[in-house]
Amino acid sequence: MKLSVKTLLSLSLVSFILCSCQDNVSNLKGWIGKSEADVLKPFPDKPHYETHYMASEAIGEIRVSVLDQYPPEDPGSKFVEIKETWWQRDDYTFTFIFHKPTGKWKVYDAFKWHKDIV
Q: Rounded to whole angstroms, how far apart are CA atoms 33 and 110?
């Protein structure tokens, strides 16, 4: 999958913001391991952003956890599909990163950040 320059710049900006404003970013560890159906209960509407990519193609600070679990130099990483979804709620953006360890989407990482840092 090739990412457009606009997408790469957007991801770079989000990465910079997340690194610069850790007080306004929360890791949602309670979601890790949950199914896609579990996520859709409180977030039934269509996400405002969704993308799919192979783990070996993960770019940016927002995807560091993917790179930690599935290093690009590991040949198997090019076969691991990742799905990333973002929902906006009030003053926050919620991001869920899914993988398919058993053939079904499971939350691999989840966090939220405040609108004032974007």
A: 10
